[in-house]
Amino acid sequence: MTPIEDHRFFWRQHPALLFALTLFVGAAAALFWQNPSNWIFPLFWCSYLIWLKKWPVLLVLAASAAYCHFLTDRAPQPGMAKGIFSISTLQPHQSPFAKGSVYKGTFYAIEGSVPCDIYTHGPKPPQTANRDYFVSGRLDRRGPCQYAFKPKEWIPIEGSWSFAEWRYAMKERYRHFLSETCSDYPNAARFLAALTTGDVDDRLLKYEFGRLGLQHLLAISGFHFGILIAFASLVLSLFLPRSWKLLFLLVSLTTYYFFVGPFPAVQRSWLTAMAYLMGKLINRQTSGLNLLGFALGFEIVSNPFICSHLGFQFSFASCAGILLFHSPFERKLRSMLPKRPSDETTFLPFLAKHGYLLSSFLRNSLALNLAVNIAILPILLFHFHAFPLLSLLYNLFFPFCVGIALCGLLVALTFHLLIPSIASFFFSATACFTAQLLDLAAYPPSALDYTIVVAQLPSWSIPFWFFALLLFCLKNSSSVKTA
Predict the structure, then answer these.
(1) Under 8 Å CB-to-CB from 372, ≥6 apart: which residues?
(2) Fewest C-beta atoms under 10 Å: which of 248, 347, 353, 434?
């Protein structure tokens, strides 16, 4: 096929992704229009859509840019302000000097509304998060589409309600429960709580995982939802038929989503998991890229300001990298780590069979590691100006080990509900294993502790990097089809 036929064929298979990417390009251009260089790629994307003859999608691009420009034009100006603060989540927060809490939500003023955070100090939150408040104080702009409010006055609004207080109370009880059941390993208890709640207030833990390029494990993502689905599906298959199992999974994942909170990565994982399970329920198949496009479009339409959120950028970039490049990289690595037919492996000697399983694990880990890092590299360099080389080593095995720890915690919680008398053994074993993992992260090999540092990466280059990756993927897939 000719290049244009390859592109048209790809987008006919993934229409949801095309519409979502166009929404994102238009929204990002309008939100960051102050820098003229940020309009280079939108104009290029417009030309690309014309080349594809996707005329209706051009209207989506224009509508997205116009709508987001309207929102930013009506955003409240920094300075003294008053308005309504609607709370979506309440989290513990640790600054370099003290512990406190952070209220995350939306600030509504006469001019318009913006996503906003309110940071407080002290062991307990000063206000309950079960309602909206009329606040007055100072509004500060911390970055593109990122605001912080310093309230001087909180006035509760009667008749309003928020889910955030219940979520905060449940997480506090859960953290206290883990600290008691894993009292011999307090660091492991805090890590397991952070891993399952998404609230990471330990600055040392953030530093250690950030130095190794493992910070993505601390944020709730598709990795966590995948483990939860796999574990729950295995257990439920023992008791329920397929349709009831899928319905129970839908309810369980939604409950967990409300427990964790509507963070960008969590919402993306929940939306894709729900769409996947509903497709299974009605016997409809869809591609992972279309599911990703559905989640991307939903989040941008519901809150265009989310484009500037780091969790949003890393979550969608890493997921797209896995979906686009894991298979091509895995095929390339077969030249070094060959893949055998299943009927051959059954007749291998004992040691050879285990050696082959190890090489298969290494091949897939390498492919996954390369797929994720090639997608998130420009975002890392733009925001943090550094890329730790140790991440290439630790991401080969550490996510797998964290998955084991998560499965151990799920087993322990299941036994706590069914047979509490033996659950303590599983909690202790999981905490002991997790403590060894944390020691491994805290004391990496110093001989390999090098970092690639980039002083400045222009923002306009990032979308061109992703477009180049898309071209590579399309060329690779077309060559596979031709072969």
Answers:
(1) 216, 318, 321, 322, 395
(2) 347
Residues 128, 27: Cα–Cα separation, whole Å? 34
DSSP 460: T
What type of residue sits at position 365?
S
The residue assigned the tokens 């009292």 is: 183
* Residues 325, 391: Cα–Cα separation, whole Å: 18
| Rounded distance between C-alpha atoms, residue 112 and residue 76, angstroms | 6
Task: Give the rounded distance of the alpha carbon of 481 from its chain centre.
Answer: 32
Tokens of 398: 């550490």
Q: Which of 26-35, 196-205, 282-291, 365-374 has the highest mean pLDDT?
A: 365-374
Domains along the chain? 3-73 (no CATH), 79-162 (2.40.50), 185-482 (no CATH)
**Distant-in-sequence, close-in-space partners of 87: CB < 8 Å, separation ≥ 6:** 103, 104, 105, 129, 131, 132, 133, 162, 164
d(CA 124, CA 126): 6
Q: How far is C-alpha 476 from the geometric centre of its chain's CA atoms?
A: 27
pTM, two decimal places: 0.86
